[in-house]
Specification:
By secondary structure, this protein is α/β, with parallel strands linked by helices. It contains ten helices and eight strands. The N terminus is likely disordered. InterPro entries: AB_hydrolase (IPR050471), AB_hydrolase_1 (IPR000073), AB_hydrolase_fold (IPR029058).
């Protein structure tokens, strides 16, 4: 599919049809997708642990791509991107910087989830001039309480999912109750809407290296987040078993003038469960 945004072509605003692209920088070929109208500051999406380009909820991406240039990408060593996954969040942030500057951008908005939110924090601390606005969802600060326990929770839920032949995200992202179970199934089904040109799955070793990086992040000395002056929106569910919900409150306290939304009766994937409320709110925040 040829690029969107040339004068005689309609702009693609559906993630299911976003063309797959690559850019090579620093010896790594990064896989990415882009959609939405060109021009202005793009919104770059930073994805979660074990995720590839196919793990973004189209209900959130499509809503933002109606009015904004949206870019999703695979970190080094993930999905269709080449190279090895680095074993630190900071190195992942360096890769993100390499990728973004290779595309020619010197100012972006960031939409991040989970591990992506950790990478986004490391990026804004190191390159504050690059980021205009920050959306941090389902994530926590460096040195945050119990972040290093993510590893155990993740392996336990992958086991539970394997035994029930379900997607681990149904356990990891949603409450196992009358509200959470249907929300989980709906989310997993939305991720299947793109049928053509899907991404390569993450390799086990890459996933294990990401977990190692998260553990290291959880056990490190916290960043001074008082230096973050960018408008920041923080969101999570009230029962996040992966990156405990209290860490979203911790981020909110540390980042001056940040906004915090905690959704009731929901877990790590609260923004996906409440996409009908959250997507317009994110659009409004990024447009402000």
């Amino acid at each position: 599919m040829s690029s969107t945004g040339t004068p005689n072509e309609p702009v693609i605003t559906s993630y299911a049809h976003a063309p797959a692209r690559t850019v090579t920088a620093g010896g790594v070929t990064y896989a990415f997708r882009e959609l939405g109208p060109r021009g202005g500051v793009p919104v770059v999406f930073f994805v979660h642990l074990a995720a590839t380009l196919d793990n973004w909820d189209p209900r959130i991406i499509d809503a933002i791509a109606k009015g904004r240039h949206v870019i999703t990408f695979d970190q080094r060593g993930v999905g269709a991107s080449t190279g090895q996954v680095p074993d630190s969040i900071e190195a992942m942030a360096d890769d993100a910087y390499t990728f973004i500057t290779a595309l020619g951008f010197d100012k972006i908005d960031v939409f991040s989830f989970s591990l992506g939110g950790m990478v986004a924090q490391a990026l804004v601390v190191k390159h504050p001039e690059l980021i205009r606005k920050l959306v941090l969802t389902g994530t926590g600060p460096k040195g945050g309480k119990d972040i290093d326990k993510v590893v155990g929770t993740t392996y336990w839920d992958i086991l539970r999912a394997t035994l029930t032949r379900s997607d681990p995200k149904e356990f990891l992202f949603f409450n196992r109750n009358a509200t959470g179970k249907p929300a989980a199934r709906a989310f997993v089904n939305r991720l299947k809407e793109r049928t053509a040109d899907r991404d390569a799955k993450i390799k086990v070793k890459a996933f294990q290296t990401q977990l190692k990086a998260i553990k290291k992040w959880g056990r490190s000395t916290p960043h001074d987040l008082s230096t973050i002056t960018q408008p920041t929106l923080i969101a999570n569910g009230d029962n996040d078993r992966m990156v405990p919900s209290v860490l979203s409150e911790d981020l909110h306290r540390r980042i001056k003038d940040s906004e915090l939304i905690i959704y009731p009766d929901s877990g790590h994937g609260g923004i996906f469960q409440y996409h009908q409320q959250f997507a317009p709110l994110a659009v409004e925040f990024l447009a402000r």
